[in-house]
Amino acid sequence: MPCRLVPSRLTRRLVQLFVGLALYGVSLAMLLRAGLGLAPWDVLHQGLAGLLGTTVGQMVIAVSFVVLLLWIPLRERPGFGTIANAILVGVFVDLTLLVLDDAEAWAWRVALLLLGVLLNGVATALYIGASLGAGPRDGLMTGLVRRTGRSVRVVRTGLEVTVLGVGWLLGGTVGIGTVLYALAIGPIAHALLPVLTVRQPGRRGRGDAVGETGIA
């Protein structure tokens, strides 16, 4: 009997993965249009896009594959969701930016910021809950944790401070949105993971990916 449930679970996992990645890209575009600050990795993406004359979505994809190269010495193994993450988030960022204009009024900018952070948290829980592979940046973090023996907190903070600093120097937007994202994204995703994690035969709890929040 349990075997008959596998196809339906896989279908749900795939749908949940694709919806989560699409919403993640949409939420990033909302934060970009709000202009009040981005998540650390997205500050880097925006800064590189300005420097190289590309779109932010293109840089999300390019940085994702550069980060995946760093998985090789760390002996991390990408899943289907890892590759989908690397491609689709950037695609949906650019598609959303085509139809969403920059916000001018402060009320609209704040609304975009708040909605973008909330939607990002939902999207994060969706794609993590699908359990089809860590995002490129999350995999880099967990690989470094395993290799160095340092805590997740130390490794993640070190990575995000580094990319935030480089992105800011390149012209990426740092502001109140950066702080709000850092404070809110973890609790939102953590609260939703029990509902959105797809249970798998032989596994219990919310899955190994709990706590791997961000794009990653």
Descriptive account of the structure:
With 216 residues, the chain is mainly α. It has one domain (7-196). Helices cover 75% and strands 0% of the residues. The relative contact order is 0.21. Residues 1-5 and 205-215 have low confidence and may be disordered.
Characteristics:
mainly alpha, disordered N terminus, globular
What is the succession of H and E elements? HHHHHHHH
SS elements, strand count: 0
Helix segment tally: 8
Category from helices, strands and their pairing: mainly alpha
User: Portion of residues in helices?
Assistant: over 70%
Mean of residue pLDDT values: 90
**Percentage beta strand:** under 5%
Largest sheet: none
- Computed Rg: 17 Å
| Number of domain modules | 1
Query: Which assembly state applies to the chains in this document?
Result: single chain
Query: Uncertain spans, ≥5 residues at pLDDT below 50?
Result: 1-5, 205-215
Could you give the distance between the termini?
A: 36 Å
Q: What is this structure's SSE topology?
A:
Elements: H1 2-34, H2 40-52, H3 56-74, H4 80-99, H5 106-129, H6 136-148, H7 152-169, H8 176-196
Helix pairs in contact: 1-4, 1-5, 2-3, 2-7, 3-4, 3-6, 5-8, 6-7
Short description:
This protein is an all-alpha fold. The protein has eight helices and no strands.
